[in-house]
Specification:
19 helices; globular; homodimer; alpha+beta; 12% strand
Chain lengths: 579, 579
């Protein structure tokens, strides 16, 4: 496998040139003292070094060793302990944390770039820190002051880690039917009983304590998803000094044997009168947990992009070195590097064009979240909400496809473990499934984010993009305005259909919107090119990759337009027995 | 996992109603005494029973145990020995063999249906018998009488098995640069030296001997692929009585650790002065091996379809039982089976519509091969040649996609080993890669099968289909003629481009032709429905699945038309450093 090299140039291009976030940061009171171009570069380059040198080279070993349950305790790949400690000591677990509780207060746009690198290096490893960051976001927003003061500093410092405990064996996407219960105890805490499955980082010894955020039902809970409450259930109950003391009644029932992310301990956790503390209002737990889930959903996008970037680099390295077949007529019998073959270039460009658009998209969504947070800007918040399911579903679908395509470039060697490509395929696959399957994301997008407000947020965004594209036209992207016009028409027809038809079209509509928005990402990238800032080679690479995107990738969207123009009724005509 | 049930009704529908092969068989001297409807049913139903009861239930165990190298010997999953013996004893290894040497002489259309079932049951296991059948085809066509008489009966009976040894570590798609040598020995045999990799079924103890078909270069060989000869190199040299005697100098260097098909022993084989026998003319080995490879390429299609069928059945079973979410308003809090969800139905129908078209397509291609063989019909031979890369590439691409989609229906449970879905994804992946990657197939299709004769075979086929569709129009398929007209125009523009541009468009063009031909498969299926032969439920299921195909799947081809209408030049503008 090639040595992973963090795509630093492209990260800077997106942060500083495409979205000019350094200018935005300098205008925000909460950020101007925290982050600027120099801090960003220091952070990105140090993170790159860690990912490249300490994590990425060992991801195959982590896959091989995997997480194991030994005498009721979870054992992780050995080197995970060393690198987790190194991340904690370097302050990386505090990167996006609130400064009031010891966090570094970095904007999401920056931490998301670090996320991508961590995911390129080892998705399974990235989850321990990622889940903790998500749990902190939920606590910061919904816990009381005392809880925050006790837990957040330890979690930001990396001493303690976090999980989210939602799924039960019979309750996945449908959390309303969960059975885990919470009963108020005499001291004001709660006794939690039940069994949760698929708990990522559910147990391990990387940290001295694990803070589980658990959904459960109170005795007086209304039925369904409006009767779920959120509890903080620590592995060790903190003593008066806030140090881990008494072991809580949480046991690991088993570890799942999975297709991939083997270094991630995916646990069945049993809670037997485990002591927990209510977070937020009773019965409002799902809303609280959604704070964390929305955060996680964006991180899924980073998993897709991270895996795709690593896969691309490996395939590119292989394509430059593997000699096979003759392309030119130079020497009839001397094999040439396969990167000369048209079909190999096609595969590489399909990945490259989508990865670069994906990075621009990730930066965009993260910057919208920052604007929502620091400016309290409702337009930015609405747009971040709109785009979150795209970041989750489309970026992970693209991530998986990129890994499969990159694996294909290796031929038979791609199927063999030693080249690392099959691990990337196995690891990337999960991001399409967990944190709400991509089907759930599409339904969320179509029904809640588009149909619910009659498309107001989406259509306003599209109108704004079209105006921008028409006002400052760029040769390679001339078709974009037409695509947006067609997309507006498709949206209009979907908006007048009933919920069933909207659900039937949700996945394809999400893919269509995503493709067109990736076109806008390429427009933004070309707009940001500047011969004073960028080398000629960089500029022409972007221009030519954009030309490839607009002529050889975006046209596939015509298939989605055609499909969505047809009635979805044939989906419902078969009886169950006829399947 | 659901219990696998062979799709017998659909198999009969394709054999007897869509393609009416029983009528064809009855008119062929070589077949009329061998096969009819009753024999077919006896064979299919017995094969179904073996696959359902003896093979499929244990495929997960085979995946877990895998093939292992112990003290230089390959150990297979234990139950493989029992089922291989049972297949041999039942005459299954002789199914398609030439009667002159002890084969059953069944037509390809029938054996291909059995192949699909074997692949649904366990792809890894199916390879031992599949490779042997392929080796027999090559020997039958190219070996001398003495060799055929010695080897074929033992191979048909299942006592001995076969392999194909092509790839070397530096020579995969590009066989011309191989280094394995053959030197004529004093007794007229040859001494083979070299190392071959990725040899499926390269060693094992299922059979008392293994017949390796090895490509190697003679000392006077011209450079490149025109200097390769084919040798038969047995693991044990037969004695005068034709029984395995002296051990040949072939050793297993190692077993590959793969993404999937773990029960298949993928070997590095070292030949050190191994004794071999020339098959066919010197330097004409690649042509001889292509006899086997073309056979194998069709079998790859069965792997794609077989995996997809199993994946569909599992997902359907799960979708009927898994209760999650509320679809109707009947009872606000009671979860319903997820097959009611529009998006789950969409995923199931995408698989179902492609699987059924795929089965019709497989039967078609096999019947063309039969016509080429028994009628010596050049049109059928040309069409089988044209369609072989589609059967290999498109059917395996669809197979993998079906497995991934079916896995998605399971949500998180699809990622866990115990449900078997992730194994199907891992197992199905290889068929897109081996026996010539799907990129190689597309190049073969575009350059050799279409451009080479200026599209004559393809265009004649399309014209014939269009005439048929227009002469007997069917309501659900009315768009098909338009698609064919557009496809003809696309083909015409590609035919006048240069080889580089054709190569760049090959994959997408293959996909486009395949989609349109799958439309024709649905047309043929609808044409074959008959209320005297089929139940109302069967007829309406076919009609509605076809309606789904024509309105919700085929329209995606518009994306391929659009893509192919653009110049592929942007593919070649980046320098290697700009990737």
């Amino acid at each position: 496998m090639s040595q992973y090299q963090a795509p630093i140039t492209d990260i800077y291009f997106n942060l500083f040139n495409v979205w000019q976030l350094d200018q935005y940061w300098s205008q925000q009171a909460a950020l101007s003292d925290t982050v600027d171009i120099d801090t960003t570069k220091a952070i990105i380059e140090e993170a790159a070094k860690i990912c490249e040198q300490q994590i990425a080279p060992f991801s195959a070993i982590a896959d091989q060793q995997g997480a194991k349950l030994v005498d009721g305790k979870v054992k992780l790949p050995e080197h995970y302990h060393k690198i987790y400690q190194s991340l904690s000591e370097g302050g990386w677990t505090a990167l996006s944390g609130d400064p009031q509780y010891g966090g570094m207060g970095m904007p999401k746009a920056l931490s998301m770039m670090v996320d991508e690198m961590l995911c390129s290096a080892d998705i399974a490893f990235s989850l321990y820190q990622g889940l903790t960051a998500g749990a902190c976001v939920a606590l910061l927003q919904h816990a009381d002051e005392q809880t925050k003061a006790l837990y957040l500093p330890k979690m930001y410092s990396g001493e303690w880690s976090g999980t989210m405990c939602l799924t039960e064996s019979h309750a996945g996407s449908d959390l309303g039917i969960m059975r885990t219960t919470a009963k108020r105890d005499s001291d004001g805490s709660y006794l939690i009983n039940g069994s949760k499955i698929f708990i990522t980082a559910g147990d391990h010894e990387l940290t001295s304590n694990i803070v589980h955020l658990v959904l459960a039902k109170l005795p007086d809970a209304p039925a369904g998803s409006r009767g779920i409450s959120l509890f903080l259930v620590p592995k060790f109950l903190p003593d008066a000094a806030g140090e881990p003391a008494e072991r809580n009644n949480i046991t690991v029932g088993s570890l799942e044997h999975k297709m991939g992310i083997n270094g991630s301990a995916t646990c069945v956790l049993n809670f037997d009168d485990a002591k927990g503390y209510l977070i937020g209002e009773p019965h409002r737990g799902l809303a609280c947990m959604f704070t964390m889930m929305n955060y996680e959903r964006l991180s899924m996008g980073s998993q897709g992009l991270g895996a795709a970037e690593r896969a691309y680099q490996n395939a590119l390295g292989y394509a430059k070195e593997r000699l096979q077949g003759r392309i030119t007529e130079k020497d009839g019998n001397k094999a040439e590097a396969i990167i000369g073959h048209a079909d190999v270039r096609r595969m590489l460009l399909n990945i490259k064009a989508m990865n670069e658009a994906g990075r621009t998209f990730a930066t965009w969504v993260a910057s919208l979240l920052d604007k929502a947070k620091y400016d309290n800007c409702p337009v930015a918040a609405d747009r971040a909400n709109l785009l979150t399911p795209i970041a989750k579903a489309f970026m992970t679908d693209q991530g998986f496809e990129a890994c499969v395509t990159a694996q294909q470039i290796f031929g038979g060697h791609g199927y063999i473990k030693e080249w690392g490509m099959e691990q990337l395929v196995r690891d990337a696959r999960i991001a399409q499934i967990y944190e709400g399957t991509n089907g759930i994301q599409a339904a969320d997008f179509m029904l809640r984010k588009v149909a619910h407000d009659q498309g107001v947020v989406l259509l306003a965004l599209l109108a704004e993009i079209k105006a921008e594209v028409l006002a400052k036209p760029i040769a390679q992207c001339l078709v974009l305005a037409d695509y947006i016009t067609k997309l507006e028409a498709t949206a209009a027809t979907l908006l007048v259909r009933n919920t069933r038809a909207q659900s039937a079209n949700a996945c394809d509509f999400l893919a269509l919107v995503s493709n067109v928005l990736y076109g806008y990402m390429w427009y933004k990238s070309l707009s940001a090119l500047n011969s004073e800032l960028h080398t000629e080679a960089f500029i022409s690479a972007k221009q030519q990759t954009a030309a490839y995107f607009f002529t050889r990738i975006l046209p596939k969207a015509e298939g989605l337009f055609a499909l969505l123009s047809h009635d979805s009724a044939p989906l419902d005509t078969l009886t169950i027995d006829q399947f």
